[in-house]
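Async update (no meeting this week)

Hi team, since we skipped the sync, here's where things stand on the single-chain job. The sequence we agreed to prioritize is pasted below, unchanged from the tracker. I ran it this morning and attached the output directly underneath so nobody has to dig for it. Comments welcome in thread, and please keep replies under the output.
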Amino acid sequence: MKKIYVQIKNEWRSNLFLFMELFLVFIVLWYIVDWVVVTTRVYTAPMGFDVEHCYDISIGKLTPKAAAYNPALTSEDDMQDLLEVADRLRHRPGVEAVALSQNCYPYNEGSNGVDVGIDTLMVHTHMLLIQPDFFRVFKYSAADGSGPDRLVEALQKNEIVVTSNLTEDYPQLGLNHADSLLGRQVPFWNLDSDVRYRIGAVGKPVRWSHFYTSSQYGGSYAARNLTIEQMKNYGDPRYLNMSLRVSPEEDRDFINRLMEDADRLYQVGNLYLLNITSFKDLREINELEEMTELKTQFSVLGFLLLNIFLGVVGTFWFRTQQRRQEVALRMAMGSSRRHVFLRLMAEGILLLTLAALPAAVVAFNIGLAELVDVDKLPFDSLRLLSGLAFTWLLMSLMIVAGIWYPARGAMKVRPAEALHDE
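Output:
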């Protein structure tokens, strides 16, 4: 390797252009690799809930023109009827859990916010106004990974559930984990509020979508029980949401089978089942814009990567072909084909490594200047080194591809013929 380094140094004039090309390409490719790695890690990270085999139930209300409409029923009766519909669905074979909520189910376009008083600060977070079984429907977990039971029990006692990262954006509180808040009475909306709740359980953080992290919007929450009194305040049951989970065995043509029984079994008072939507479909609708943008970005990056690949491979291909006479001379002097082949490969890899060193310094400063995405993933040593290593590996493969075929072709030529052409 030392001899190869000396040769590269002696031929610095001819290698300077190649060095600059590798230096610039390495920086560009590292930026692409960093973006792809961050996007992939965010997209594949745990969501904190599970919507497999889950459905959203839309409730409709009969109009006065309907034959079955009962004008004597009040809005309070409607809420009682809504609870009856939910109870009937719970007893349907194959249904594992049913829960009502208000504007907070996964992949919902809307949300609720709340300020929770912690010491002398008001901490803003996402509010879940839900029935206890909501945690079972979407398989939320306690902070220790023990499942939803502890969260359900807390809501049943009219306590609230908060996520472990509730105070993550408030370092002045000095609370790294919300476990220390267990059992504490906290005010809602403002520090002087009479509305206070006891923190009864701590849950795992969740994510708003596959394009958000748990540290971003919707990652933390404070959940409280949706009581019948609170339901009556909304006046119309259509302002509430109903979600259910079915067993995997029953999740075959479930929507059609349920709608066939809707009028016969699930019309109560003036309420009826209007529509059923799979949460898989809700996820696609919610993430459609981001997914379209992601596909466009990947298409552009794919085209750019193809150009980088062709450029690097072409450069080393041409460079190796131009050295046919050198290869022939080395073989004529007694070098084996294997030795010559490995020398050409080692020279290319060494040139890449030398160019990668200053490129790594530039990449480090790009990260420090936050010219890469640091909102979704912090720019730490692991992110930098893994990106540099993957970039070096990709470019090494490109260089090997550019040297392999022309080098093998050059070694098949008889030394005398190659030297005669020279």
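Quick observations from my side:
The mean pLDDT is 88.
The beta strands are 54-61, 95-101, 113-118, 121-130, 160-163, 185-187, 196-203, 221-225, 241-246, 271-278.
Reply here if anything looks off.
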